Amino acid sequence: MSAIDPASWRRLLVVKMFAMGDVLNATPVFRALRRALPACRIELVVGKWSAGAAAGNPNVDEAVVFDDAELRSQGIGGIWRFVRRLRGRRYDAAVILHRAVRVNALIAACGVPVRAGIGWNGRGPFLTRHAYEGPETTGHEIRRYLNVLSVLGIPDAGEEMEFFVPAADSLAAERILEENGAERPIVFCPGGASNPGEEMPTRRWPASHYAELAGRLLAEGESVVILGGAGDAPIARRIAEMDGRVLDLTGRLRLGESAGVMKKAAAVVAHDSGLLHLAAAVGAPLVALFGPTDPRIKFPPGDRSRLVYRGEPCSPCYDRGRFPACSHQRCLALVTPDQVMEDVARVMSRPAVASGKTA
């Protein structure tokens, strides 16, 4: 293996597309690269779906945004446009945070000479260096991403995720909450669990449970706010219709405004989704509900996050992008609103910490 000198690099590419939560999990990589290579230009290849997760991040000089659906379709036109656009940028190296041979091959076709990524069982096709993963590999996804830097001799700079909330979005969020008498709400994120080409409803805590929890919290004088994208509106509506005092903001806010609301929250309740990771990235007190996905890999690190996980015999069942057929969803359906109510009280009692950077 030939020697490399990261200090000599002038232009570096990081590749992390598709899921918003995965892009947030990659923010410790951006930070470590910036600290180790302050003179290097760092660019991120990201999909339209998740580009907002890196917007305003000072550790990334430019986000090169592609259409997720076009790349997933593997049509020759989309692939050619991808290669042509990146090849002309003449990168010195690439850090590839995917486990897909076709992504490695695309970056190789772009003419990037040093390509570090995640291997499998000692093999890393189209990579010049790879971090080992195998069936026995354990550890959080953030740590696995940082392992890619270690094969380049680049030290990490901690595992804390980051999201930089634009000042205008923080002010807008504060105004919305004040106008609705919800200055320090309990935030629900009942939707999500969807990515380009993927719908994963088995990752969602049942809407009926969220509705029951909302009723309990409202009865105790708390404010309840629902966040999500436009596609989450039907789920949110089922919850909000149970009590007119629930403030439903699904589909009405930019991502930065949603993050601003989370920064003001007394607690956030979310299952494994992009908004769960956003809440952790801004330091919100978080009750994280896990079932089919493995919390050892995805539960956000940090003192303000509390895990709710039953550990059914059949869970976690999510394996390398696939779920088995499931007709019962016991792993989440049997997590009761009473239990989550107790966990909300626990995270609300923890002292606040400095969090949620402002862009």
What's the structural blueprint in terms of helices and strands?
Elements: E1 11-15, H1 20-25, H2 27-36, E2 41-47, E3 62-66, H3 68-73, H4 76-87, E4 93-96, H5 101-109, E5 114-118, E6 129-131, H6 141-150, H7 167-179, E7 186-189, E8 194-195, E9 198-199, H8 207-219, E10 224-226, H9 233-240, E11 247-248, H10 255-264, E12 267-271, H11 274-281, E13 286-290, H12 295-298, E14 305-309, H13 330-333, H14 337-348
Parallel strand pairs: 1-2, 1-4, 2-3, 4-5, 5-6, 7-10, 7-12, 10-11, 12-13, 13-14
Antiparallel strand pairs: 8-9
Question: For the record, what CATH class of the largest domain applies?
Answer: Alpha Beta
Class from secondary-structure proportions: alpha/beta
Low-confidence stretches: none
CATH topology of the largest domain: Rossmann fold
Which band does the percent of strand residues land in? 15-25%
The CATH superfamily label of the largest domain reads: Glycogen Phosphorylase B
How many domains comprise the coordinates?
A: 2
Order of helices and strands: EHHEEHHEHEEHHEEEHEHEHEHEHEHH
Shape label: globular
If you average the pLDDT, what whole number results? 91
Rg from Cα: 21 Å
